[in-house]
Amino acid sequence: MTTVEDTTAIVQAPERRVRILERPQATTGKFSWVTTVDHKKIAIMYATLALFFFCVGGIEALFIRLQLAQPNGTILSAARYNEFFTMHGTTMVFLLGMPIAAAFGNYLVPLMIGARDVAFPRLNMLGFWVFAFGGFFLYSSFALGGAPNGGWFGYAPLTSTPLANGYLPGRGTDFWTVGLIMLGIGSVATAVNFLVTILNLRAPGMTMMRMPVFVWMMLVIAFLTLFAMPPVTAALIMVFMDRNFHTNFFNAAAGGDPLMYQNLFWIFGHPEVYILILPGMGIVSEILPVFSRKPLFGYRVVVMSGIAIGFLGWGVWAHHMFASGLGPIAVSAFGLSTMLIAIPTGVKIFNWLATVWGGAVRLRTPMLFALGFIAQFTIGGLSGVMHSIVPSDTQQTDTYFVVAHFHYVLFGGLVFAVFGGFYYWWPKVFGKMLNEKMGKLNFWLMVIGFNLTFFPMHFLGFEGQPRRTYTYPSGMGWDTLNLLATIGAFIIAMSVLVFLVNVIFTARRGEKVGHDPWDARTLEWSIPSPPPEYNFAVVPVVTSLDDYWHHKYTEDDEGRLVKLPTGGAGEEEELIPAGFDPHSIHMPSPSYWPLIFAMALPIMGYGFVFKNWYLLAVGVVIAFFGLNGWAIEPSTDPEPSGTEAH
Amino acid sequence: MAQAVVTAGSSAVAPHGGDHSHDTNTGVSNSKLGIWLFLSSEALFFGAFISTYFLYRGRDAQFLKGPTPDKLLNIPFTSVTSFVLLMSSLTMVLALAAIQRGDHRRLRIWLLATALFGATFIGGQVYEFTEFYRKGLHLGTNMFGTTFFVLTGLHGAHVTIGIIWLLLLWGRSMQGRLPAEKSEAIEIAGLYWHFVDVVWIFIFTAIYLIPTH
What we know:
The structure holds 2 protein chains of 2 kinds. Chain A has 18 helices and 4 strands. By secondary structure, chain A is mostly helical. Chain A has a domain at 295-359. Helices cover 69% and strands 0% of the residues of chain B. Chain B has 6 helices and no strands. Chain B is elongated. Chains A and B meet through helix 6, helix 7 and helix 18 of A and helix 1 and helix 5 of B.
């Protein structure tokens, strides 16, 4: 956007005051990534960092599996094992699952609805940097007095008992509470941004019922995030206060109620499950029609099922607490609501199958991952419905059966969808196709490794192996299945390595492709790859669902597809109309302020964890400095050439 | 089909600017929709603490230590500071009306009045906290101490943030950087301020007006 001439024009403008923090101008070069507000660059940073944490959490999982490969394992001490399973769960939920949704959402939502950026570009930037600082803040605990070790759900009173009583030694729990509160702030900011973007910035003609399913799913999860984060933030504040300031929120000996923690946590925790899986469902709903060359079967029903899941997701939280003695009425009600939520989920699965049925299926890598998602998510969904049968759930609680169940949903579901999404949108983001052979190898290794790891855990659970226990004696009959699971985990690691090699290989000598290599349906494929900073040279006018497809194809009298002569959507050079001047589009300018505000959060966080009130005060001052600068700075700098003051 | 809708020289990202966003899909500007959504999230935050307060009310009767609410709460005093806080919503509305008329002098007067009323309320809260502490109610004394200090303390923190926000707006207006077209900045601060007031109505009712037994 900003050319060399423009930059000099700004520097020479006499009325411009020189401040300490002169507004950054560069939109290219390495440093521009730090100050960028471009939703596409932010998305790439989200995905890169989320993949990094995926690898870190994965390495923790490999250690866990090595420890459990044989009875009486000695690779990890009990204390280290607690840290690893806690950080594995925390990482995969908060540092992979939620940011990867933000990555796909950031890149795709504006492109799919025909917008040039998100509603609040600087808030978007803030969301990313809070995630980055929050993630490293959490991991800094390993070096600063012990990592979190109370499980990813941090049940009170284990976590909330004051340090002196020594239930959970070390500062880990404080890092965990403060770190999650911090990440929650970023998630709420991101959710507000997605909501306003989707509700307000749709291109002309892009009505709600013409939005791609992925955008719908992002809308639903943004609402879920908005309302799920506050209760857990409250619970985390209470734990922090109990632990450090001797309040009694969860201290039964003084009248507090540990069950209250479970309620507050799972009112967040169950919608969180849908926050994690719905983006995956959105991705799959985009991939299946393209590789079946059919429209999504029952678009409206898929959208409505997604919304129904969003609502019902609020009424099922206590199925995580069946073993806690809630009483028969509460338990029956939550058992029933859990059965109920399986209906919209099942409806979606049938819609996906009907989409593929009778289609001209192309088994390319993204399609393989999408089909893998359907199969494995269905298995995870079925073992999930089993938990609505309360007596059966009571047997399964805290066994490896539960571990098997939620990995089938979150790994077999979400992670498979995410990898499918990588292979599907890679050519759009980088203009190059990921290698297909390595892609298929990646897929098959992952399917084999995943099922080898987690399918045996169903049986281990039925045979009574407890979760979160650092070792087990021999002679329980668990040895073979545990060894199989460990072998599977390393096969998964190999498949991720293949993916990383594929990424490097593609960057070096990948095959360059056009703007629409898959012959796809949605708006993002109608613009060049990679998209220009302003996304759309001409804001599209949308007339139907799958608008771009209808620019390319029509049906003859017998319902067969007929390719239209290349009109609006043709050769690469026609994508941007002749005589179009990118400078006529006025994009939001880069900024330092969100970065400064985000930096203040870990400073405040260390202040809280170490009860260092000077550090806290410094953080508060920096935060207000950042917010004030942010408020004063206009979202878009005035046009450098001065043609029109906006 | 995809017609060009680029008007020469216009700001093509018009719906993105915070201040001139009348052409959004919903008709509500981005900033206003954003603050409403944020406040809905905040409502659940306070909701969690208020429900915790109700759940724990009087539950510690069997191991009660320290002073109880009926011996501590000075209802007439807090009624007065609450009234002051509610009146600050009125001055906030007057501030918005002033900037919409282009009356910047009155805008600044009402902004300062709102901040001053808010500060009076916070002053009352500081006095009340000190008084309770002197009478032996600490965070860990009993369930009332735990829930009361944390709930009202978090509300007080929200009011304090609001006061700083108002003062920053006042400073911008003094520098002449808050023209009448940017009245939405006042409106958004006002929405936050009214929200914090409404939350206090709930907290005041819950703690001071509903008898414990």
